[in-house]
Amino acid sequence: MLTVYLLTMATNVIPLLVISGPVGVGKTTIGNEVSSVLERRGIAHTFIDMDALAQTYPRLPEDRFGEQLALRNLRDVWANCAAMGSKNLIVARVVETKQDVENIQFAAPGSRPLVCQLHATRESLIERVRKRELGAGRDRHETRALELAQSLRDKAPADFVVETDGQSILDIAKEIVAKVAWVTKR
Q1: Which of 91, 153, 159, 165 is the most buried (most CB within 10 A)?
Q2: Residues 118, 140: Cα–Cα separation, whole Å
Q3: Model pTM?
Q4: 117 in a domain, yes or no?
Q5: pLDDT level of residue 37 (50, 70, 90 thresholds)
């Protein structure tokens, strides 16, 4: 998709790029590369992998997947980063519904979300999961990757989609960066 999605740059509006996609598609890898591209351009930003914000045991029974914990931590981490001068937020997280996006936006007050759904073939997802998951969770991750690949293609929110097969990480990141009107003033 060649359309550039612009965010209204009203006072205090923070671009919030949500990088979503199934397990193994490369959300964290691409988010890190987007961060690197922005850094090279001198654009103040923060990249947060929300899975890392929920990686704790035990979890409360009512927050089995750590979603509420991740959102609370996102709110606090983003507040600290914004206080230190960050002007743009990039989040890696599977978003399956509009409510998922709204929850992330709520954790980053004043933000305007833009959702990038990453896609890959089933074969690529399985190959990537097998390289990454070397332990007991491999089968579960493979199954979840394929489930999410189908459900995200069918009904997940997306402002734009990026196919990851056959592209370098840097090319994917540059494609994504070009679709966002980043706040560039310090």
Answers
A1: 91
A2: 20
A3: 0.86
A4: yes
A5: very high
CATH code, domain carrying 153: 3.40.50.300
> What is the rounded distance in angstroms from the CA atom of residue 71 to the CA atom of residue 138?
26
Whether 82 maps to a domain, the answer reads yes
Pairing of strands 89-92, 160-163: unpaired
- Tell me the average pLDDT across 3-7: 36
Asked whether residue 129 is domain-assigned, the answer is yes
Is the pLDDT higher at 125 or at 103?
A: 103
Look at the chain and report how many structural domains it folds into: 1
Closest CA to 118 of 71, 167, 70: 167
Alpha-carbon gap, residue 14 to 144, rounded angstroms: 32
What does the alpha-carbon distance between residue 10 and residue 175 come to, in Å, rounded to a whole number?
Answer: 24
The answer to whether residue 159 scores a pLDDT higher than 70 is yes
Q: For a pLDDT cut of 70, what percent of the chain falls above it?
A: 83
Gap between the Cα atoms of 178 and 23, Å rounded: 24
What tokens appear for 177 in the block?
Answer: 């960066």
Other C-beta atoms lying within 10 Å of the C-beta of residue 153? 14
**By residue range, what is the domain housing residue 65?**
14-177
Q: How far apart are CA 9 and CA 108, in angstroms?
A: 16
What 3-state DSSP class applies to 104?
Answer: helix
